[in-house]
Amino acid sequence: MIAMKKILLRIALAAATLASLPLHAHEFWFEPVTAPLVVGDTARLDLRVGQFFEGDQLGFFGPQTVALQLFTAAGRQDLRPALPRPPRGAVRTFDLLLKTAGTYLVAFDSQPSQIALSAGRFEAYLHDEGLDFIKARRDATGTAEAPGRERYRRHIKTLLRVSEKAGVESSPATPDNTYAVRTGQRLEIVPANDPLAMKPGDNLGLQVWFDDKPLAGALLKAWNKHDGQTVTIRTTTSADGKASVNLPYAGGWMVSVVHMVPAIGVKDIDWDSLWGNLSFTLAPAVSLR
User: Is the pLDDT of residue 171 over 80?
Assistant: First the structure.
């Protein structure tokens, strides 16, 4: 009981911190699972919120989760029924039993949250996330000096590779394209090639979808922690929502994107923003020596 209260307190403090700081300073992601995984293992899924790919653990809580889905070559599984609901509280991590070899894709969608930023902080956030078209709209409508009143949602994914046994790369009998599955998220980053099969220095193709259509002009950021420093690589999607980014280092990566549209029929909210994220681990290059 005491341990659960500590978890709930930590989650509440993290949420309070998130609400009190500029939204543009925060990403939300699944921490990449870097340890090798084999059938029979349990993958410990960890939600994080923070900046510069450093963040606080949030935990999992049923009422705050719109969707939690698992995709494998066998199909889709709804994981939300396994989440704790009142009065049971929250869990620090979600433990996923790995029953088969292959690629696992886990997708999480959050309930909406609201925030209001001063005009200056809101415009700085818009510029940082490649949303200057929203600034142009505020200028055109004479609302540039108004606070930014926003409702935001998170649409995040992570990829895992599970081997049949230790020391053996997972090689399903049939091609496993789970990495490219469309999960139905309103804003979604979809890899064009398998990030889990890449090596440092390879190019990762990506496509961003919004409302089931390719999203043009979206700013993508790829994040990695290398030698104690956070590396951020930026690129912008083309007219067909596609982009490519070179990933120079092994280890945990996340790719993030933000999109915003006018809020319709909602009192005291002017904008709806959606935050997409994809995380995975890039394997180190194999030495031939």
Answer: no
Alpha carbon 232 to its chain centroid, in Å, reads 15
Torsion over CA: 212, 127, 157, 207 (sign): positive
Looking at residue 79, its amino acid is L
Give the tokens for residue 2. 């005491």
Decide: 221 and 233 in contact? Cβ < 8 Å: yes
pLDDT digits (tens, 9 = 90+) for 260-286: 999 999 999 999 999 999 999 999 976
Domain spans of the chain, in order of start: 2-282
Task: Name 165's Cβ contacts closer than 8 Å, sequence gap at least 6.
Answer: 38, 39
| Under 8 Å between Cβ of 192 and 242 | yes
Give the residue from 191, 210, 207 showing the smallest Cα distance to 253: 191
Quickly state the pLDDT bin for 190 (edges 50, 70, 90): very high
Average pLDDT over residues 169-192: 84
Neighbours of 172 (CB within 10 A): 15
C-alpha distances in Å from residue 109, one per residue of 89, 197, 242, 282: 19, 26, 23, 24
